[in-house]
Design brief:
This protein is an alpha+beta fold and 257 residues long. The chain is 39% helix and 15% strand. Strands 1-6-2-3-4-5 form a 6-stranded antiparallel β-sheet, with helices on both faces. A hairpin with a 5-residue loop joins strand 3 and strand 4. The longest helix is centred in the middle third of the chain and has 15 residues. The N terminus and C terminus are likely disordered.
């Protein structure tokens, strides 16, 4: 039985005891200061701990930096890259330094990484298009999705931005939920299609970019340049926001810009 990590987090967040109301501010300057949305402790703790060493799924590459989830995704999907710790780390560093400025990975940059690894971007959408996802999975393809991590973790429309983050969807469980590979934790878990779709919607609202790319092996031999040209037909609809990782900073805002 698969454990749905993010739904477990959401359930824990719902059972947290209510904090006592704070007295009204008497200082006029203090009263006028904007109030930041509260971040559930259980969610903040998940993101804070997410880069600590932990046992993960053996088929999921774990990112090595706050903002290199794009390189981790490309390494994980690559048919030739080594997946053990040292080899994967070298590949991630090489992809990151070649295609990005180190601050995250845009859809266009991720497509170039995938082309470099011999993979074709076959479709791009600005939403989580479940019929297209199901069709891709039936063909043995995988789907890379750019989401807001806070919405994905909690399922709640809190309007509090998490990180802009790339995850991989590569299957469904026996309950009809989608199986997600998350490079932030190096883990695999199941999430409903609606929760992923909402997370993409929040990515647009809070980070001005998001969506999905269908990825697979090309049907015929293509060089890297041709694969990049084909990918460019599909990436614009996702915007140009950097996807980095799930780790929250003090403001719990976007950390991949």
């Amino acid at each position: 039985m698969r454990v749905n990590l993010f739904q477990s987090i959401a359930r824990l967040a719902e059972t947290r005891p209510q904090q006592a109301a704070q007295p009204a501010a008497t200082d006029p300057a203090q009263a006028q200061a904007p109030q930041q949305p509260a971040v559930p402790d259980i969610v903040a703790r998940y993101f804070t701990d997410s880069f600590e060493p932990a046992a993960g799924a053996s088929d999921v590459v774990k990112q090595t930096k706050d903002a290199n989830c794009g390189a981790a995704v490309a390494t994980m999907l690559s048919p030739t890259a080594g997946k053990d710790g040292a080899a994967a780390a070298r590949k991630m560093d090489a992809l990151e330094s070649r295609f990005t400025d180190g601050g995250g990975t845009t859809p266009e940059e991720l497509a170039k990484m995938l082309a470099h690894e011999g993979l074709e971007v076959k479709k791009g959408t600005s939403n989580f298009d479940m019929p297209s996802v199901n069709e891709a999975l039936s063909r043995g393809q995988q789907v890379v999705v750019q989401v807001d991590t806070n919405r994905l973790a909690t399922g709640v429309d809190s309007k509090v931005a998490g990180g802009s983050h790339w995850v991989v969807v590569d299957g469904m469980d026996d309950k009809g939920n989608y199986q997600v590979k998350d490079t932030n934790t190096g883990s695999r878990y199941s999430v409903s299609g609606q929760q992923i779709a909402d997370s993409v919607g929040s990515a647009w609202e809070l980070h001005q970019g998001g969506g999905m790319l269908v990825v697979g092996a090309p049907q015929s031999a293509m060089d890297e340049g041709t694969l990049v040209e084909k990918a460019n037909l599909h990436t614009d609809v996702l915007g140009d926001t950097d996807g980095g990782g799930s780790r929250a900073r003090g403001s719990f805002g976007r950390e991949s810009s």
